Amino acid sequence: MMIRTVLYISEIASQDNKTICEHVSEIADTSKTNNRKKGITGVLAHDNEHFLHILEGESPILEGLLTKIESDQRNKNLQVMFDVIWAERIFQEWKVFDKTSVEHSQRFDQFLKLNMDSLALLDDAQFEVISRFAENVFH
Ligand SMILES: Cc1cc2nc3c(=O)[nH]c(=O)nc-3n(C[C@H](O)[C@H](O)[C@H](O)COP(=O)(O)O)c2cc1C
Fold first, then answer.
1. What is the pLDDT of residue 16?
2. pLDDT tens for residues 69-125?
3. Measured in angstroms, how far is the CA atom of residue 84 from the centroid of ligand 1?
4. Which domain holds residue 67?
5. CA distance 97 to 43
6. How far is the CA of 71 from the centre of ligand 1 (A)?
7. Which long-range contacts (CB under 8 A, 24 or more apart) does 111-115 make?
8. Which of 29, 40, 77, 128 would be 57's cystine partner, CB 3.0–4.6 Å?
9. Quick one: which atom of ligand 1 is closest to the CA of 33?
10. Nearest CA to ligand 1 atom 13
11. Which residue out of 30, 41, 75, 97 has the highest number of ligand 1 atoms within 8 Å of its CB and is therefore the one to mutate?
C-alpha cells in the first residue's frame, strides 16, 4: 500500500493562558487514540515557537486531519513543507517527540535523507526552521 507522508510547520498560538506543554499534552491525549484508530503514524515536535509534525497514513485520512489541525486555534500559519507518496512508513506509531529516544532522532534523520530533493525546494525561511529543529530539537 502507498503511504502519504506530510511534514508541516505551524506557529504555536497560546490559548487560555496555557503553557506549550499543557497544549502538547492535551493534543497528545486526543491524538494517540485517534491516530491509532486511523492508522496514522509519525512524530509531533515543538520548540518555543513552532510545531513540527510528520504524519504518515492513507491520503484521504491525512487530508481530513490536516484540515482539522489547520483550523485548530492552538496553532496558526500552518505550512506544509513536504507532501510525498512512499511505499512505506518510517515511523511505527504516532508519538510526541521524546528527547531521550535515540530511535526518534535516527528516524528524523532518515526522513530528511529520504527527502533531500524536497528539502532543496524549500525557501530560505522554511529551510531555516527545519535546520533549527534538526539541530536543537532532534539532536
Ligand atoms: C499542532 C497540532 C497537531 C495535532 N495533531 C493531531 C493529530 O495528529 N491527530 C488528531 O487526532 N488530532 C490532532 N490535533 C487536534 C485536532 O486539531 C483536533 O482538536 C482533534 O483531532 C479532535 O477533533 P474532534 O473533536 O473533531 O475529534 C492536533 C492539533 C494541533 C494544534
1. 79
2. 999 999 999 999 999 998 889 999 999 998 888 888 898 899 888 888 888 889 999
3. 21
4. 3-137
5. 6
6. 10
7. 111/5, 111/7, 111/54, 114/86, 114/90, 115/7, 115/82, 115/84
8. 40
9. 11
10. 31
11. 30
Ligand 1 centre to CA of 86 (Å) is 24
Helix segments in the chain, DSSP class H: 20-38, 59-70, 102-114, 116-121, 124-132
Q: What is the overall mean pLDDT for the chain? A: 92
Torsion region of 103: left, alpha or beta (phi above 0 gives left; psi -120 to 50 gives alpha): alpha
Contact 109, 90 (CB under 8 A): no
**What is the CATH number for 111?**
3.30.70.100
Lowest mean pLDDT segment, chosen from 15-19, 31-35, 40-44, 60-64 = 15-19
Reading the block at residue 47, the C-alpha cell is: 520548540
Helix (H) / strand (E) element for 18: namely none
Question: How far is ligand 1, taken at its centre, from the CA of residue 31, in Å?
Answer: 6
Number of structural domains in the chain: 1
